[in-house]
Amino acid sequence: MEAVGALTEALETTERARGHLFEFHQLTGSGDAKLIKAAQLLRDAGHTALADGLERHLIGRNVVPGRWTFQLIEDYEDTYYSVFREWERKVRDDLMGGVAHVYEAEMKERNTTSGEPGHELNP
Predict the structure, then answer these.
(1) Residue ranges covered by each domain of the chain
(2) Origin, by domain of life (predicted)?
(3) pTM here?
(4) By C-alpha distance, which of 86, 66, 68 is closest to 14?
């Protein structure tokens, strides 16, 4: 049970990392949208060469060679995250009959007060 719990905790940490990857994706997209606005404001103010430079060198640029942020997410999910989830499920299925959070469920049962409102074991 301890090993399965450790594996599940590792997956939960990876879930958080995945969330940060989506955060990175959204923040980068937001920054790019603001960059487009800045280029337009430069153009409107008569700074055409600077606006052209931003559009040519930065707007639409890959964040790493050949990849935009959505592609980083896709690569992460296809090559790492999905395999991690599959193995966590396999280990849990093989050793715990597929039941998740066994340790937490046992802790809940130990730490609730029978008959006390808000301490029900099930909805």
Answers:
(1) 2-110
(2) Bacteria
(3) 0.80
(4) 86
